[in-house]
Automatic annotation (TrEMBL):
Top-level EC class as recorded in UniProt: oxidoreductase
Domain of life: Bacteria
Taxonomic lineage: Bacteria, Bacillati, Actinomycetota, Actinomycetes, Kitasatosporales
PANTHER family reported for this sequence: XANTHINE DEHYDROGENASE, XANTHINE DEHYDROGENASE SUBUNIT D-RELATED
Protein known as: Xanthine dehydrogenase subunit D
Species for this entry: Streptomyces katsurahamanus
Encoding gene, per UniProt annotation: pucD
């Protein structure tokens, strides 16, 4: 600003770099790939103790006694806590149903349930002390499946249920049940010229995040506690933690620490309450870190499922009806099972136009490990089954499986089975066309110029089990539909606080939300939004904590939509205040201040034609501008309990895959050669990040297709493979080329027209791989994952 108060000399504005639509690099990327990023497990505090959890060794048993005397006598032990030491009458927690005890009391309901806590001055001391706790169990019959859960006289996993679902389920061992009925499926079945029925089994998948559960609790002088934690939703954790501790929420101060992946597995509490209890009891900071073995017991998993489907069609390939029954195993506690049931039911038909549907989805209480949120959230299991059905119906009709899908594909305006009209682009047929149109990868890629086989390109890879004999290629296709955002009437909102000020003559924006950055790149996108809306280069992202309002969970592919929407709205308010201040200060120097549509670009206030009126530093002066907003998407509705009708979802996303596999049919080994994806992303705010999300989701779908499954003993309900030695996940050698074709068909209801992208590719990748293996082998293959014995006919031998 010059001495007269008029704005100083300015050049014409240019487009601000690093805004939406650009592949801006993420600020934590280099630190993560070089090993310098500070994860939650890296935290340290002077004088801290180490916490450890004693877990049940049986799946279902009455607890007759817990003897902690020997543990307390171990030198270096500062506290041993059981149920009796909990400070308030609130001793259970849960996302929707508060049925999960902080520490087991009376009985344990699953293998690995927390029973007692130890704090000691060394982690090994805490572990040895926990091993000295004596628990007297009287084992009870285990409930492991629908037959045992609903049999006459079945043992109840939870007696005396009073939750809001209890009065609406046919048996107390059913957590929630959701029918979806539209049209007359019975009459449609009479008209059908072809009817295909199938039964399918989906295995229990683990989120397998690489950063284990960890946190640091620090007691405060005012009687409160600070908790540094890796989580997906700070405020949801807070609402469950504070009542158990007997503290007001403002005395439980939570800060997000470095998160090493999540995928749904950090939506539920793990050691949050335990660390706080030990810190408050000892008056010392307490750190807890699970090892990999304990991590398998410390979080929920993807629901295993049994699915029965019936599809009817006319001879010319039009679907007449779909009937389905989906049974999800929720394990010992409810977690997010009710919402998973709603998703599985409402998305059970897939991205197809079908006038008559009769769907039933339910989740069981069993003594198996608790299951809850995982990427895809109920839609994954359904997609595996309905896409297998689509292939089988096409084969019965003698139709090409891709053209059969395209013939029945939904489009904008189609009614969902819930009666909700799809009111934004639904390019299902186009996605299928695109993946099919891609050139196929060359065959026999293992052959080299010298005649030797490159075993890395063969089924079995470096195990050197085959050199190409018995290898058959297969190609398969699948497409899926996933909802975006929280559904069924949930008040889905996010809070953003944005501050803009001049620092040493440079305009700087500070963005503060409670969004959990779990690897999805939200911090990158928030900075891009602020640069775009405020026309500046310098943006600071504050650490996520509970000093700002809730951002909701980093789940349901919602954060860019909802918290991004909140940041955008807050920045728009800041922009209006900046322009108003500029008009007051400089309006008399240029008529455009009063008459033109003004923009913020490249650190300046400019007209639509690019004429610069003032620098933002001059407009701001020494006084910052700050605002905080809550932003909500369009409201949704609960689904009717009887018919399942209602506008339950705010947005849908679509992805299609083509899988190319090579199978050694003699040894039962599978090599996925390529897994191409086409997906409508609405608007790619950061194309590189979007591509990464699509490739990551695709890889998790590949994992559950051919290798990933938590094995639970059907007699004892004990987990058999709680380690990465025995629970296999795809490595870089297992992951194929994943070419991505992005459509950008804007959803007019969403910020920038974007769609949530993270989950949809997890759906269709699994059935595409299964379809390709079926194509190569001619086998039916109605379960995931496919193992070698399923391909060689030696299963059970």
């Amino acid at each position: 600003m010059n001495a007269t108060g008029a704005p100083g000399d300015l050049t014409q504005a240019t487009h601000t770099r690093g805004g939406i639509g650009e592949s801006t690099l993420r600020p934590d990327g280099r630190l993560k790939v070089t090993g310098e990023f500070a994860y939650s497990s890296d935290m340290w505090h002077e004088d801290m103790l180490w916490g450890h959890t004693l877990r049940s060794t049986v799946a279902h048993a009455a607890i007759r006694a817990v003897d902690i005397a020997e543990a307390l006598a171990v030198p270096g032990v500062h506290a041993v806590l059981t149920w009796d030491d909990l400070p308030t009458a609130v001793k259970c927690y849960g996302l929707e149903i508060q049925d999960t005890p902080v520490l087991a009391h009376g009985k344990v309901r699953h293998h690995g349930e927390p029973v007692a806590l130890v704090a000691a001055d060394h982690p090994e001391t805490a572990r040895r002390a926990a091993a000295k706790i004596r628990v007297d169990y009287a084992e009870l019959p285990v409930i492991t499946d629908e037959a045992s859960a609903t049999a006459p006289g079945a043992v109840l996993v939870h007696e005396g249920r009073t939750d809001h679902h209890a009065a609406h389920v046919p048996h107390p061992n059913i957590v929630h049940r959701q029918p979806i009925v539209r049209g007359d499926a019975a009459a449609a079945a009479e008209r059908a010229e072809v009817i295909v029925r199938g039964e399918y089994v989906f295995g229990m998948q683990d989120q397998a995040f690489l950063g284990p559960e960890s946190g640091l609790a620090i007691p405060c002088d005012d009687g409160g506690v600070e908790l540094y934690i890796a989580t997906q939703w700070l405020h949801s954790d807070l609402a469950q933690i504070a009542p158990v501790l007997g503290l007001p929420e403002e005395k439980v101060r939570m800060t997000l620490s470095g998160v090493g992946g999540a995928f749904g597995g950090r939506e539920d509490l793990s050691m949050q309450i335990h660390a706080c209890l030990l810190a408050l009891r000892t008056g010392r900071p307490v750190k807890m870190v699970y090892n990999r073995f304990e991590s398998f017991f410390g979080h929920v998993h993807r629901h295993p499922a049994r699915l029965a489907y019936e599809h009817g069609a006319t001879r010319d390939g039009r679907l007449t009806h779909v009937r389905a029954r989906i049974v999800l195993d929720g394990g010992a506690y409810a977690s997010s099972s009710p919402a998973v049931v709603g998703n599985a039911a409402s998305l059970a038909v897939g991205p197809y136009a079908v006038d008559a549907v009769d769907i039933e989805a339910l989740a069981l209480y069993t003594n198996n490990p608790p299951c809850g949120a995982m990427r895809g959230f109920g839609a994954v299991q359904a997609c595996f089954a309905y896409e297998a059905q689509m292939d089988r119906v096409a084969a019965r009709l003698g139709l090409d499986p891709v053209e059969f899908r395209r013939l029945n594909a939904m489009e904008q305006g189609t009614l969902m089975p819930t009666g909700q009209r799809v009111d934004s682009p639904a390019p299902v047929a186009e996605l299928l066309r695109r993946v099919r149109a891609r050139p196929l990868p060359p065959e026999r890629q293992w052959e080299t110029a010298g005649g030797d086989a490159d075993i890395r390109a063969l089924p079995g890879g470096l195990s050197n089990t085959t050199h190409g004999e018995g290898v058959v290629r297969g190609v398969g296709y699948a497409v899926g539909i996933k909802n975006v955002g929280f559904s069924e009437g949930f008040d889905d909102y996010s809070t953003a606080r944005v501050r803009m000020e001049a620092v040493n003559g440079t305009p700087v924006a500070t963005v503060h939300t409670a969004m959990a950055e779990v690897g999805q790149g939200g911090v990158t996108v928030h900075a891009q939004i602020a640069r775009t809306e405020l026309g500046i280069a310098q943006v600071v992202i504050q650490p996520a904590d509970t000093r700002v309002g809730s951002a909701g969970g980093t789940s349901a592919s919602r954060q860019t939509y909802v918290t991004g929407g909140a940041v955008k709205h807050a920045c728009e308010q800041i922009r209006e205040q900046v322009l108003e201040r500029g008009r007051r200060r400089f309006g008399s120097y240029h008529p455009a201040w009063a008459t033109a549509e003004l923009l913020l670009e490249d650190g300046k206030v400019v007209t639509e034609t690019g004429e610069a009126l003032a620098s933002l530093a001059d407009v701001l002066g020494d006084e910052a501008i700050e605002t905080e907003v809550e932003w909500r998407h369009r409201p949704t509705q609960p689904l009717d309990r009887i018919t399942g009708q209602g506008d339950g979802h705010v947005q849908y996303s679509f992805a299609a895959h083509r899988a190319v596999v090579e199978v050694d049919v003699e040894l039962g080994l599978v090599k996925v050669v390529e897994l191409a994806c086409a997906q409508d992303v609405g608007k790619a705010l950061n194309p590189l990040s979007v591509t990464g999300q699509i490739q990551g989701g695709t890889t998790q779908g590949l994992g559950v297709a051919v290798m990933e499954e938590i094995l639970v003993d059907p007699v004892t309900a004990k987990v058999r493979n709680p380690s990465f030695t025995d629970y296999l996940i795809p490595t870089i050698l297992d992951t194929p080329a994943i070419p991505v074709d992005m459509l950008e068909l804007a959803d007019q209801h969403a910020p920038y027209g974007l769609r949530g992208v993270g989950e949809a590719p997890t759906l269709s990748s699994t059935p595409a791989v299964l379809a390709a293996i079926r194509d190569a082998t001619g086998l039916e293959l109605n379960r995931t994952p496919v193992r070698p014995e399923h391909l060689t006919g030696t299963a059970g031998s």
